[in-house]
């Protein structure tokens, strides 16, 4: 079972404009798919469609096409980690509480929140409400999920937004570990990756402006 | 998906919501203060004559409860929507209706339950005759869950609209009318000395039905809203 995701002939139209049509790709274990495109091209729409947050006009999205088991919704949702534009961090709760509650919601029992906070460089800020932290620090809280997630497929919308260079470096190291362990990543980013994945696919969405 | 992980997610959603609201206590206190203000202003405006005040007491308390439910209703899912937690909830493997039910339960614990506890004080302030107190409390116990559940449906439907407040009130108020009629009818019945339990039981049935179906409606509305 090495193919994680098969996408065939996706079509998306929004407000009378075709964002993308006839979009197809396969994703194998160890792959990194870098989706590029100008602002408003439909990158986020594509990612949200992949996890079922947006319904597309046409197309077929299939997780684990080679597995014999019927892939019902619950099955693949456990295998996919999606991080969108918004970090999903509660402004009222402290960094520590946010990290532990995120883990509980993900169904992970045995995490060490202190360890995770140290990893993402938030030690010393754990008792401040997340609302008082900077955008980059809030994103770091959200990104702690990547360090304990069991999901083989990560779908990340602009993961580097608001992160400093150290943060981006750290995140790319984690990506490298993930792909080395047989995971796959789909991400959008306007920045070029400084890390060279062994199996990098690029997909350019033109937003119908051709 | 096994029931243990469902239960765990249910508790995690409840715990998070409770923690968030505990950091923002004014959100709970505002609706309760509103009810107390209405209830304490009525005797001043209507006059302290026990016969009038006692007769309208249940109506006043219930109207205040309905309006206070509308007060904070648009905030129920607003913050979750804005910070992205709502979208993460829809992506969990657990059924969204279950997680929506957790949010409804928290909402009731922090808005309905305090109202039930305050009811005797309100009844005292409005000089509701003692024989009607148990009925008033009973209607609040079975009626306030309907308030929370229906409010949640409306809030989930309008969460993606920037300023959904007025629309939400228009949407919800008609749905609360039957609740108002049966609840004040029950208290009225016990005031005139007839049996109040038919109305209370009817409210109870309505409450069970709403609690059973509302989480599915809330889940569907959330899915539409995060789109």
From TrEMBL, chain A:
**E.C. code:** 3.6.3.41
UniProt feature coiled coil, ranges: none
Domain ABC transporter as annotated: residue spans: 5-205
GO molecular function per UniProt: ATP binding; ATP hydrolysis activity; transmembrane transporter activity
Q: Which UniProt keywords apply?
A: ATP-binding, Cytochrome c-type biogenesis, Hydrolase, Membrane, Nucleotide-binding, Translocase, Transport
One GO BP annotation of this record: cytochrome complex assembly
**Name the record gives this protein:** Cytochrome c biogenesis ATP-binding export protein CcmA
Species assigned in the record: Pseudidiomarina piscicola
TrEMBL record, chain B:
GO BP annotations, alphabetical order: cytochrome c biosynthetic process; cytochrome complex assembly
Q: Name one GO molecular function term.
A: heme transmembrane transporter activity
Record localization: Cell inner membrane
Keyword annotations for this protein, in alphabetical order, are: Cell inner membrane, Cell membrane, Cytochrome c-type biogenesis, Membrane, Transmembrane, Transmembrane helix, Transport
Identify the GO cellular component terms for this protein.
plasma membrane
- Per UniProt, what is the membrane topology? Multi-pass membrane protein
Tell me, in one coarse class, where this protein mainly resides: membrane
Question: The organism sits in which domain of life?
Answer: Bacteria
UniProt cross-references to Pfam families, sorted A to Z: CcmB (PF03379)
Residue ranges that the Swiss-Prot or TrEMBL entry lists as coiled coil: none
Q: Which InterPro entries match?
A: Cyt_c_biogenesis_CcmB, Cyt_c_CcmB_bac
Q: Where are the transmembrane segments?
A: 28-46, 52-72, 104-126, 132-159, 166-187, 199-222
Q: What does this protein do?
A: Required for the export of heme to the periplasm for the biogenesis of c-type cytochromes.
Q: Can you tell me which family this protein belongs to?
A: Belongs to the CcmB/CycW/HelB family.
Indicate what this protein is called per its UniProt record: Heme exporter protein B
């Amino acid at each position: 079972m090495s193919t994680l995701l098969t996408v065939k002939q996706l079509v998306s139209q929004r407000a009378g404009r075709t964002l993308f049509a006839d979009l197809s790709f396969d994703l194998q274990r160890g792959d990194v798919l870098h989706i590029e495109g100008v602002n408003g091209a439909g990158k986020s729409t594509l990612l949200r469609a992949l996890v079922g947050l947006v319904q597309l006009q046409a197309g077929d999205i299939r997780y684990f096409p080679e597995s014999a088991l019927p892939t019902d919704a619950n099955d693949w949702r456990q295998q996919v980690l999606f991080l969108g534009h918004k970090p999903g961090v509660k402004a009222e709760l402290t960094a520590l509480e946010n990290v532990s509650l995120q883990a509980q919601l993900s169904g992970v029992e045995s995490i060490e929140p202190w360890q995770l906070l140290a990893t993402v460089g938030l030690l010393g800020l754990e008792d401040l409400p997340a609302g008082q932290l900077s955008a980059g620090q809030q994103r770091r809280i959200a990104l702690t999920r990547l360090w304990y997630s069991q999901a083989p497929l990560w779908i990340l919308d602009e993961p580097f937004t608001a992160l400093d260079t150290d943060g981006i470096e750290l995140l790319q190291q984690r990506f490298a570990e993930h792909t080395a362990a047989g995971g796959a990543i789909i991400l959008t980013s306007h920045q070029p990756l400084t890390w060279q994945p062994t199996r990098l696919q690029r997909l350019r969405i033109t937003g119908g402006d051709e | 998906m096994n029931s243990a992980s469902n239960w765990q997610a249910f508790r995690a959603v409840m715990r998070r919501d409770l923690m968030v609201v505990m950091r923002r206590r004014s959100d709970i206190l505002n609706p309760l203060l509103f009810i107390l203000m209405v209830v304490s202003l009525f005797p001043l405006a209507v006059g302290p004559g026990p016969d009038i005040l006692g007769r309208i007491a249940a109506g006043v308390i219930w109207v205040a409860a309905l309006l206070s439910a509308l007060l904070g209703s648009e905030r129920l899912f607003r913050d979750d929507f804005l910070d992205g937690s709502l979208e993460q909830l829809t992506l969990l493997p657990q059924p969204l209706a279950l997680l929506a039910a957790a949010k409804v339960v928290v909402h009731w614990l922090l808005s309905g339950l305090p109202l039930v506890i305050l009811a005797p004080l309100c009844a005292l302030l409005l000089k509701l005759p003692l024989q009607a107190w148990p009925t008033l409390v009973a209607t609040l116990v079975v009626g306030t869950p309907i308030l929370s559940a229906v409010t949640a449906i409306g809030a989930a439907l309008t969460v993606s609209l920037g300023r959904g407040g007025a629309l939400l009130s228009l949407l919800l108020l008609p749905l609360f009318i039957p609740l108002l009629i049966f609840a004040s009818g029950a208290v009225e019945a016990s005031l005139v000395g007839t049996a109040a339990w038919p109305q209370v039981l009817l409210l109870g049935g309505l409450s069970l039905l709403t609690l059973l179906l509302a989480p599915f409606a809330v889940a569907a509305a959330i899915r539409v809203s995060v789109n």
